[in-house]
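HOLO CASE FILE
Compound: cytidine-5'-monophosphate
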Amino acid sequence: MTAKINDLRDRMIVALDVPTIWDAYRIVSELGDGATFYKIGYRLAFAGGLDLSRQLISEGKKVFLDLKLHDIGNTVTEGVDSLTKLGVTFLTVHAYPQTMRGAVEGRADSDLKLLAVTALTSYDDGDLRDAGYGLAVRDLVRLRAQQARSAGIDGIVCSAAETEIVRDIIGPDMVIVTPGIRPAGSAAGDQKRTLTPGEAIRVGADHLVIGRPIIRAADPRAAAAAIMDEIAAAS
Ligand code: C5P
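Model generated. Tokens follow.
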């Protein structure tokens, strides 16, 4: 196992993609000690999710706040400074150099780890052209991974399929967090390029974000346990 992670269970991050904090609590209590790390995105963050983060942390869980911040450097610095007081483990920012430098300044010497989003996985080369970029997705991912490293960012969020390319650029010390994970036999849903938990660990991911295969399973606790077994076998 990588030296960056003390508890193997922390490699699995369960995405709490549900509308209310009550739905979230139901999942957290069903999973019990079968999950240690939860991701809270826009939907829940804007519906009581910041207070939920505090609560989960007070119960010994870790929280990944997926807020994908992006603004002028000074505003990002101040926002990140506020978030350091929440006690969350991971926070996402978009991988624009000024945004990343602002976030690193706001994080200062706190324990918060910053993750940069290089290029949204829903974007293809045509979407980037529409947005005024002259780079292909793959080249933008490489450029921004390099810039994240130079800025002092702690890790990268990328699709499981990009993990090897990103690892080559950022080296062994930064973390890689990948969504788009599907245990063999589970429905892909809207995810297009998926890897199994074992494959993702073997290509170099440190943490896997997993939503529907756990939270929509008939037996979430059993689904999480099976995924953990696969992670453990590949670690
Ligand atoms: O349900 P599923 O396992 O597909 O959930 C994956 C989670 O990871 C969701 O919260 C989704 O928003 C997030 N995510 C993703 N692809 C990205 C970035 C984040 O699926 N590129």
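CASE NOTES: Residues 42-58 form the longest helix (17 residues). Residues 8-234 form a domain with the TIM Barrel fold (CATH 3.20.20.70).
CLOSED: yes
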